[in-house]
Design goal:
This protein has 185 residues and is α/β, with parallel strands linked by helices. The chain has one domain: Isochorismatase-like (Rossmann fold, 3-Layer(aba) Sandwich). 48% of the residues lie in helices and 20% in strands. It is built from 9 helices and 6 strands, in the order E-H-H-E-H-H-E-H-E-H-E-H-E-H-H. The chain has a 6-stranded parallel beta sheet. Strand 5, helix 7 and strand 6 form a beta-alpha-beta unit. Helix 2 packs parallel to helix 4 and helix 6 runs parallel beside helix 7.
Length: 185
């Protein structure tokens, strides 16, 4: 049976291109969902010392990562790119490989472009890819639905953010659970 689990020891979080201009092109519902759920992933990663890599597509034209996520991400590695596929940027590829993790949890925009191409490259390279379904977005609903469907067929795991966070938490009553539980309200 294929392994559908994720854990802290073998995971990293990859936040792809949640930048000012791209973010503004998303619907208000998508913006709210992206902010809330990406923040949950950032905070969960920080709590468990899970590596967080942030990418920004052509910063000069699209701006920086939105402040609401840039601030909680703190001093995480933030790398600029011009390729849509993060794995075609040597610096980002090396950063991912240097973590020595085999599971990549992805949040970002746009799902049907940069997230999609990156996820396919990661799968082809032998990584387990987990797409946070409520922490990714596209401008058009059809593009979003089609990308999730194809990524699932390609072997990516498609989980809601809470499922990911609770799999990493593993149990209630811990200091980590108490610290993160207000984020789920």
């Amino acid at each position: 049976m294929r392994d559908f689990t994720i854990n802290c020891s073998n995971s990293l979080v990859l936040m792809i291109d949640i930048q000012d201009k791209l973010f503004q092109a998303m619907s208000q519902d998508s913006q709210a969902m992206l902010k809330k759920n990406s923040a949950i992933l950032i905070n969960t990663a920080a709590e468990f010392s899970i590596p967080l890599i942030i990418t920004e597509q052509y910063r000069k034209g699209l701006g920086e990562t939105i402040a609401e996520l840039r601030d909680p991400a703190g001093k995480s590695l933030n790398l600029e790119k011009i390729h849509f596929d993060c794995m075609k940027n040597e610096e980002i590829k090396q950063a991912i490989l240097n973590t020595d993790k085999k599971t990549v949890i992805i949040t970002g925009i746009e799902l049907h472009i940069c997230v999609f191409q990156t996820a396919l490259s990661l799968l082809a390279s032998g990584f387990k890819v987990v797409i946070a379904s409520d922490a990714v977005a596209s401008r058009r609903k059809h593009d979003y639905k089609t990308a999730l469907k194809v990524l699932s067929e390609a072997g990516a795991l498609i989980y809601p953010t809470e499922t990911i966070a609770f799999m990493l938490l593993e149990k209630a009553g811990t200091p980590e659970f108490k610290k993160l539980s207000p984020l789920f309200k």
